[in-house]
Design a protein that fits this description.
Keywords: Repeat, WD repeat. With 339 residues, the chain is mainly β. 0% of the residues lie in helices and 54% in strands. A 7-stranded antiparallel beta sheet has the order 3-4-5-6-7-8-9, with no helix packed on it. A 6-stranded antiparallel beta sheet has the order 14-15-16-17-18-19, with no helix packed on it.
Amino acid sequence: MSDFNPLQEQESIVSVTDRVVPVAIGAAVTAVHFLGDKAAFVGAEEKVTLVDPAGAMSPVEVAFGGILCSTSDGKRIVMGCDDGKVVVLDREGAVSTFATDAKRRWIDSVALHPDGAVAWSAGKTAFVQAPKGEVKSFEVPSTVGGLAFAPKGLRLAIAHYNGVTLWFPNMAGNAEVLEWAGSHLGVTFSPDNKFLVTAMHEPALHGWRLVDGKHMRMTGYPARVRSISWSAGGKGLATSGADTVIVWPFASKDGPMGKEPAMLAPLKAKVTMVACHPKQDILAAGYSDGTILMVRMTDGAEILVRANKGQPVSALAWNAKGTLLAFADQDGDAGLLEL
């Protein structure tokens, strides 16, 4: 990992910091999603703050306690809370309770399917509800570490200790286990449905080629990988966890097997968040010192979005058109950049 710091040479890097609309959330932000062109900053407690492109803020009370996880499809945000509720916030700012755990357990993970199905987990149990269906559940051997729907068909990946269970909720008793020792937390399907990748409790990723279950080990990180993002078209998987953005190649049928990753945007700080542009080979990267860079994936060219301000970047997202970038750090110091 290189120690080169491009920000030591401010003249050598293009800056758009003067075009950022500052947003003061004033409390910890754990994620940001877009509902249309409104950025929705999800707080660690109780609130989501909706912000329009001009910076006008509308706080919305969504929970009575902690918000533990969130996901969005651009039309609504689904959140899991520490009071056992799955809560939905729609584009109009309306809040509704989608589900309540019978034992009021923490809702640790949530996932959304393109057809509107919602998945959530509490303890060892994963739940799925299709738009017009009943709630179905599946128990795995240990606490659920993460959930992800496959891009095609109703198939749910449930990450847990020692592997991932692939569950078809519409087929009774139909589940397949992909095994690998260790604790699997985040999980994601490649956009082409050919690969499944987990972020592990140790500083590594693990992957499987779904056609034959072949393993892919992606190691060498100094820290745990907490943020992953597929590039437009799914040819690369950008990850946090090092002092450069690590991008694993997934363009070939073997994925990253036997290949080295690209290492982009080195800094003397850890990458904490990554978000790939939805249409172009560009990514945004947030760092532990508060720096945010836009990076062209083809040649590594960088644009400074936010200079180092001290607090780690905790949230980063593009809108669906790729015209707006939203970010926030752990203190709730946030911003919007219109391209």
